[in-house]
Write a structure and sequence with these properties.
14 strands, six-stranded parallel beta sheet, 380 residues, alpha/beta, Arc Repressor Mutant, subunit A, 3 domains, 11 helices, Rossmann fold
Amino acid sequence: MTPNISTDKGAWKLGKGGGYIYQRIEALILEHIHAGRLKPGEPLPSYPWLSRALGVADKTVRQAYESLERQGVLEIRQGKGTFVATAKPSAGAGDRTNVLAILPPRMPFEEVDAPLFWAGARAVQTAACERRVETLFLVSGRDLSAPGSPEALADRRRYDGLIALCEVPEIFISRVSALSFPLVLLGASAPATPAEHADALLLDTTTAARELTYKLIGLGHRKLGFLREARSRFSTDAEAGYRHALGSAGIAARPSWIASVNRDLGETGAGGAAALLSEELSGVVCASEGLAVALAEGAVRRGLRIPEDLSVAAVVHGEHALIPLAGGARLEGVGWNWLEAGRRAVGRIQERLTGEPVTPVREAAPLRMLEGTSLAAPRL
């Protein structure tokens, strides 16, 4: 039988590694628990004893114990001491995470300005609620690339893991990862190689646009246009998918079939849509639902019917139900299964909190189809 190590100084040595001291103490305690040297119900050393053994302040040991108590690993009994929790958390168990932080690069208050952020935020909050995990938003004016910023945000006294929505600086990702802090990137881009403690769940706009274009080609369309937003990474990725599908079908995309408009869809938006409609196209793939709505309005003003005269499809960035288009049609498109993406993100944080080795992943967020009535075979 393995003796209890609560008073064995040889068992309490901090190895070299990154992160705050209290995080390294947490890792050492978890190592003893997983190795069976500390069993459920057994006591841990007192704050003064362990602080002397490790050469750290009492408050640092207390911080580590309190953090593990919030995670359900330890039980602090008033006047009696600290003990290993009697119900050991299972791998991926929802009770291991008490608080999960959501980090926007900036806080957009209008949904129309940031459909991706709000769709992702709601999905993460819903998934966290299913697992009985609290969430909080980190709203800060600080530069995420600035020295000390990652360390300030990776503060386990307030939360146990971090989901970064949309895009954050690569240097921030690497610094937080070096702190061994659970981090999931849910958004448009991430480093080519995931950091050691960061997972990437990315929105694959290229595949979404490619699938839409293939669907139109399958219906018999050969004159297909593409409407994109100027200076937009998502539009650039979507255009790549559109071109890939046309190329695979042996269709050469003419320059006049692709129009670029400003985000506000002002004069340039109307002009871009009008230019495409002048090409006598039978279908158009749009890089966002807003562009599809603008295109459909322009088409109806010209007397075209949707989908009889023009099929309209879009990469849907938000989480909306089928969007109405001018003329009574409903938008068809490909977007993301946000709830499933949120579940994957929260689950990945919880996997990392079990203390078991976890291999970083880089995967695409799951897609979902919007089946409306805005696509039809072209008239011959």
